[in-house]
Write a structure and sequence with these properties.
Blueprint: H1 4-9, H2 11-15, H3 22-32, H4 37-61, H5 64-89, H6 97-109, H7 116-128, H8 136-141, E1 151-152, H9 153-164, H10 169-176, H11 193-211, H12 216-228, H13 230-243, E2 257-259, H14 262-267, H15 276-281, H16 290-297, H17 301-306, E3 309-311, H18 320-324, E4 325-326, H19 331-334
Parallel strand pairs: 1-4, 2-3
Length: 339
């Protein structure tokens, strides 16, 4: 059963000053929470189509430029699979929870070493305790200098360059390790047995398939190199966009929604993941209806006036980058993270 109160109230309203009148939105929001599993399955298939096409092109042309282009396509689709795993965490891929987790694990989580159940435990705590000392995402980020924002523009450029070169892996480890199958087999937060067996069955199956190809090393490199480099930049920008340098005074500025360009939608914000404020307000609305939810909320004067909406991720003077970077800051400001 879906949590109807969560559909109408949203987790932000449970811990912060309520601004939206939920009763006025009741019928419209309830309509938007109705699942259409075919749309989720189509989205999963769409990502894998581009991944497989990129792998085939890389092998067929055997040229560094094609490898580079294929890797860029693959990493953006890996990111999209992560977004779909997030949908699985909220039981939004399929009406059946069994099928929801099967789809999420087999096609989204396992290919990048993750567990839907582990991510669900982590992520739902994040929803319940957003921006507090009990928020696991805040705790995971806390203390590492690459997660202290805002920064000088030169410092920000250095962080993003380090991410792209795979030099900042340790700053992501506290975030990703709690979601991963192998590190948590014997940890306190144990991976469910069925997911452990499922994961190793998946790895075995992929290994058998690759053994029939003489290009298995190339395939693995095309999969893992983008995941260890460019993915860091994408995840950093999206993570900062969602939870850094915000006022956090009430439910409408406790996180941020970004209105991206078409290019940014492909690279940084697939599947409407940019509507993060809307997602926290009404977590049961699936990704394919977040745009409708946004337009609905924009008809509400309080939301239109007070919601933290940012135009574009990458625009230097008016986008996210302008909100998280500053030209000059004193030593005290340099060591703080606005939130």
């Amino acid at each position: 059963m879906k949590n109807i109160s969560n559909d109408l109230i949203g987790d932000l309203a449970l811990t912060r000053k309520i601004v939206l009148n939920r009763e006025d939105l009741r019928d419209d929001v309830m309509a938007l929470t109705k699942l259409q599993p075919w749309r989720s399955l189509l989205a999963v298939a769409h990502q894998w189509f581009w991944i497989c096409l990129s792998l085939v092109c890389g092998i067929a042309f055997n040229h560094w430029a094609v490898y580079l282009l294929a890797g860029l396509v693959i990493v953006t689709r890996q990111h999209a699979l992560g977004v779909l795993m997030h949908e699985g965490v909220h039981y939004a891929l399929h009406r059946s929870r069994k099928w929801n987790d099967f789809i999420s694990n087999l096609f989204c989580a396992f290919p990048v070493g993750m567990s839907t159940a582990l991510y669900r435990d982590y992520h739902l705590k994040h929803h319940r305790h957003l921006n507090t000392e009990k928020d696991p995402q805040l705790v995971s980020n806390d203390g590492h200098k690459t997660w202290i924002w805002p920064k000088k523009k030169s410092e920000a450029a250095k962080v993003f360059l380090g991410d792209a070169l795979g030099l900042n892996g340790l700053s992501f480890a506290p975030i990703f390790i709690p979601w991963m199958v192998v590190p948590n087999i014997f940890s306190k937060t144990k991976t469910p047995r069925k997911e452990v067996f499922g994961f190793f069955a998946f790895v075995l199956g992929v290994g058998i398939l690759l053994s029939f190809s003489s290009n298995w090393i190339t395939i693995l490199l095309m999969w893992f190199i983008p995941l260890a480099t460019v993915m860091n930049v994408i995840f950093r920008i999206r993570g900062i966009a969602e939870h850094f340098c915000i006022a956090d005074r009430d439910e409408l500025d406790a996180t941020r929604t970004v209105l991206p360009t078409t290019f940014e939608k492909i690279i940084l914000a697939p599947l409407s993941v940019n509507f993060h404020l809307e997602h926290h307000l009404f977590p049961s609305v699936p990704f394919y209806r977040l745009n409708e939810l946004h337009h609905l909320l924009m008809t509400v004067p309080d939301f239109k006036e007070k919601a933290h909406l940012t135009n574009t991720y990458l625009h230097l003077s008016k986008g996210l980058l302008s909100e998280i970077t500053i030209e000059n800051q004193d030593d005290g400001d340099a060591e703080r993270r606005a939130s």
